Amino acid sequence: MDAKKIAEIEVDVLLEAIRLRYDYDFKNYARASLKRRVHSLLSKENLEMPYQLIPRILYDNKIFDKFLSEMSVTVTELFRDPPFFKSIQEIIFPVLKTYPYFKIWHAGCATGEEVYSLAILLKEAGLLGKAKIYATDYNKRSLDIAKAGIYSASNMEKNSEAYLKAGGKKSLNHYYTEQYDAFKFKDDLNKNITFAYHNLVKDGVFGEMHAVICRNVLIYFDKDLQNHAFTLFDNSMVKRGFLCLGSKETIDYSVLKNQYETFSRSNKIYRKTN
Amino acid sequence: MKPFPDPIKSTERPINMEHSNISVIVMGVSQGGLEALSCLLAALPQTFEKSIIIVQHRAADSDSYLSEHLNLISPMQVKEAQDKEPIRPGIAYIAPPDYHLLVENEGTLSLSDDERVNYTRPAIDVLFETAADCYGAALVGVVLTGNNSDGARGLKTIKDLGGTTVIQDPQDAQVPAMPLAAQAITIIDYALPLKEMPELFIRL
Fold first, then answer.
1. Is B101 in the A-facing interface, judged by CB distances under 8 Å?
2. Best interface-test mutation with A: which of B101, B112, B125, B134 has the largest number of A CBs within 10 A?
3. Over chain B, what is the mean pLDDT?
4. Is the pLDDT of residue B12 over 60?
5. CB A17 within 8 A of CB A54
6. Is residue B117 situated within a structural domain?
7. In percent, how much of chain A has pLDDT > 90?
8. Residue B199: its pLDDT value, please?
9. Where in chain A are all domains bearing CATH 3.40.50.150?
10. Which A residues in the span 55-84 are in contact with B, Cβ-Cβ below 8 Å?
């Protein structure tokens, strides 16, 4: 057997140890990126080979926390991808207006910046009071940050710019209080948001959603796990519900291909046809 | 500066026998990239059967002009890479702005929005290292013009795993820093001006 195949077995065994010990299954994650993250943790821990992580992870859950943080490093920011936030106001909000109340699932919300972005825009449209937003992630530390709603103020200028580009009607500082080098979103924004643990790999449907937002999560999954997640979203969706993906994600090659119509090709907004 | 091996003579060296199965070329370019890629891709024939995977550094909010323009002027099909897309022969793939582009072991492309590497996303090193992991000796890595050192470490990985290394001759490069950085840390098989590269790519 060549060295390359043996190295793959090594990673498989590490992932199996993690699954048995912590019940997190990374087997169907996109492999190239997963291996880079394993190697990033190895170099931080002054280790060389993936097998060296196995005893450390089995007996020290702090190392597992580090692994999980490494796996869920996310690039997120307020109003990330402003054209997307602009187009949900144009495409989805008018439909949401017709419901007495509605539910939105933001799957893989990470540290929550994009959930607050959504809440701000719903508030400006007069819809936040009718909304129930479920914001879920598999990293409890990220969820803690999201729940607190406190972020570094170092990018405020960029945030304000993105807010305006996304079609924000006021001024972003309307929604937070600033202290030293941090800002905290006001409580009226998150009183309709439930932050909760949910792992797309193993957890199921928990409600009927009018829209599901899952951006830049599926690129980390292989095809099988992507389809698993798509099916989960579909089973969570009301008739004519909306599905929103990241700008480089698509349902085109998935099991949902023929069951959803495209409402915005560039901003990846789809709608269930039945 | 040490003399570079003559490209014609180099193919006579037995080491290149190992590379007869080359099907994929990975390429990294930064400043001066539009001109360099235009020159290169316009000169490759429609019958070119290798796949080319390209990281061009560019602004996060860039539009699709780059791939559309290159597709117009090249006999090859040039397109922006999509997540989980199979790598097919005769097609040049360009990393989308603001995403890393990676090669998966089953010969598909994947995207990630992991942290920047070398202050950039997409990063050439990420593409080169994952492609080297997949293709080993059957890979050619090419570092073109650019004003930073991204790609140097990745090109070294390609060489370490038995692949072929190519840089744009620094004297030919609009900005020589990137090929120079690659040359500083790894053995370069071919250092060529742009206009001599298509012939090499066909021959390898």
1. no
2. B112
3. 90
4. no
5. yes
6. yes
7. 92
8. 96
9. 82-272
10. 73-75
DSSP per-residue codes, B103-144: E-TTSBEEEE-PPPBTTBSS-HHHHHHHHHHHHGGGEEEEE-
Residues of B in contact with A30 (CB under 8 A): 84, 102, 104, 110, 112
Could you tell me the fold of the domain covering A82-272? Rossmann fold (3.40.50)
CA dist list (Å): B91 to A221, B24, B51, B81: 24, 10, 5, 10
Which three-class secondary structure state does DSSP give residue A121? helix
Domain count, chain B: 1
Instruction: Write out the residue range of the structural domain in which residue B135 sits.
Output: 20-186+193-203
If DSSP codes are grouped into helix, strand and coil, which group holds residue A16? helix
Alpha helices in chain B (DSSP H): 7-10, 33-42, 65-73, 124-135, 152-160, 177-185, 197-203
Q: What is the largest CA-CA distance in chain B?
A: 46
Q: Alpha-carbon distance A262 to A252, whole Å?
A: 10
Which CATH number fits the domain that encloses residue B199? 3.40.50.180
B114–A33 C-beta distance less than 8 A: yes
List pLDDT tens digits, range B166-181.
Answer: 999 999 999 999 999 9
In the stretch 212-271 of chain A, residues with CB closer than 8 A to chain B read 216, 218-220, 222-223, 226, 246, 248-250, 253
Q: Which amino acid is at A82?
A: P
What is the C-alpha separation between A242 and A14, in angstroms, rounded? 38
Torsion of CA B48, B130, B116, A198, to 10 degrees: 120
Band (pLDDT 50/70/90 cuts) for residue B1 is very low
B2 inside domain: no
Residue A255 identity: V
Residue B136 within a domain: yes
pTM attached to this predicted model: 0.89
Chain B interface includes A158 (CB < 8 A): no
Q: B55 and B24 in contact (C-beta within 8 Å)?
A: no
Residues 6+ apart with CB under 8 A from A166: A79, A82, A83, A85, A86, A117, A121
Residues 6 or more apart in contact with residue A76 via CB below 8 angstroms = A110, A111, A113, A114
The answer to the question of residue B13 being in a domain is no
Q: Which helix (H) or strand (E) holds B43?
A: none
Return the pLDDT at B17: 40
